[in-house]
Amino acid sequence: MNSITPGADVLLARWSALRVRARDIAADAVVIGGGSDLSYLTGHDGHSYERLTAAVSLTSPDAPSALLITPKLEAERITPQPGVFEIGPWEDAEDPIALAAGALPETGSVLVSDDLNANHVLALQERCPNLSFRALNESLGGMRAVKTSAERKALQAVGALVDVVHQQIQDGEVPLVGRSELDVKEDIAQRLLAAGHDEVVFVIVASGPNSASPHHHPSNRVIEANEMVLFDFGGIYKGFNSDCTRCFFTGPLPEDVAAAWSSLVAAQEAAFQAARPGNRLCDVDLAARNALTADGYGPEFIHRTGHGIGTEVHEHPYVTSTNQTPIVTGNAFSIEPGIYRAGEWGMRLEDIVVIEDDGPVRCNGTKREIVTVS
Ligand code: ZN
Ligand code: ZN
Ligand code: ZN
User: Fold this and answer.
1) What is the distance in A from the centroid of ligand 1 to the CA of 11?
2) Per-residue confidence at 268, pLDDT binned at 50, 70, 90?
3) Which H or E run includes 57?
4) Rounded Cα gap, residues 257 and 2, in angstroms
5) How many structural domains is the chain composed of?
6) Is residue 1 part of a domain?
């Protein structure tokens, strides 16, 4: 859960940008279920579950403020934002779908956010047979995919905080050999907070053969000498996420590891250079993928090159080999190619970049070397 409390002016700007984009694709209304899109638009971190939480709004230029439908028992903790939304509380004996339907037009097209539960979507469809429903994020290419300059600055700021911790590991301030992954994870979490994050979101510590599992969950495994340790972690600062990966080796680098790492660095740099307005997202993925394939590591690069990031760690746009969406100023995403040799080691190099008019800018600055630590 992300805590963000932007002011009414910021929220209003977000709503009007959404309404304009929705009108551009001939959508007459939006339904935003509880989740990250809702907190982005209202500052309320409510989640949809069996009880409906959703903001409903028309998209016309003269649309009244949104209706934030919420279970009455949660209405108390919503900060009122007059002019941005009205609160529409409902009690358990009432029908919230009727409330939502009442705020929608009779006919037309409605965009529904990813977080609205299927039970609510199906009920709405049944109640409003003359409306057609589309997926909001899919249709818009990500409601939050284009960041304002203030949002890009927020990503730079939180990136600097995660760098502090990777720097501490690179400087040898975090002992590794002889400690369990879980022990080190706790240490890292403390350091993320000490560096200034408001909240720790995730910490991956993957040692030895565990590093070959990209989303490894830290375990009781004790880190040994002469092996890989992969660190991928991030937190939230002022509502925006950090996410950065660096790798370490607890001894002299074996030749195969050194060779793979230098190929990985080159692949990440090639992807970085491709991340500019005018190119497509698939160009970024393919830059990394082709570089690794040319060096013989193609089959061991088993995931997409990156993901958008903002108020969520993973959000649009996704950097895949098939995403033909053009890159535009304001996009923000990770560039994180990896090489995974099952049973032996895995490595990944991840930086967040924001796209400015003249190209990509990294949000992370610790050196992109595999550092020997003990
Ligand atoms: Zn991941
Ligand atoms: Zn990561
Ligand atoms: Zn990532």
Assistant:
1) 29
2) very high
3) strand 54-58
4) 37
5) 2
6) no
CA of 311 to the centre of ligand 3 (A): 13
Ligand in closest contact with the CA of 313: 3
Bridge partner list, 55? 32, 68
Closest CA to 206 of 168, 175, 246: 246
Q: Is the pLDDT of residue 2 over 50?
A: no
* Ligand 2 centroid to residue 314 C-alpha, Å: 9
We report the CATH number of the domain holding residue 347 as: 3.90.230.10
Burial of residue 269 (number of CB atoms within 10 Å: 0-12, 13-18, 19+): middle
Q: Taken in order 7, 31, 198, 151, is the CA torsion positive or negative?
A: negative
Q: How far is the CA of 55 from the centre of ligand 2 (A)?
A: 31
Range of the domain at 70: 8-144
Specify if 119 maps to a domain: yes
Q: Give the model's pLDDT for residue 47.
A: 86
- State the distance from the centre of ligand 3 to the C-alpha of 306, rounded, in angstroms: 6
Residues 112 and 157 in one domain: no
Chain mean pLDDT for the chain: 96
Structure tokens at 202: 């995730």
How far does residue 158's CA lie from ligand 3's centre (Å)?
14
In-domain check, residue 2: no
* 165 pLDDT above the threshold of 50: yes
Q: Within this chain, do residues 253 and 160 fall inside the same structural domain, yes or no? A: yes
Q: How far is the CA of 336 from the centre of ligand 2 (A)?
A: 8
Q: Could you tell me which of 67, 19, 16, 62 has the C-alpha nearest to residue 44?
A: 67
Q: Output the pLDDT for position 48.
A: 79
* Per-chain residues with Cβ under 5 A from ion ligand 2: 232, 243, 245, 350
- Centre of ligand 1 from the C-alpha of residue 305, in Å: 10
Give 129 Cα–ligand 2 centroid separation in angstroms. 42
Please compute the mean of the pLDDT values over residues 195-222 and round it to a whole number.
97
Identify the nearest ligand to the CA of 319 by its number: 3
Residues 137 and 171 in one domain: no
**Distance from Cα 352 to the centre of ligand 2, integer Å:** 9
Q: How confident is the model at residue 1 (pLDDT cuts 50, 70, 90)?
A: very low
For residue 3, being part of any structural domain is answered with no
Average pLDDT value for residue range 315-327: 97
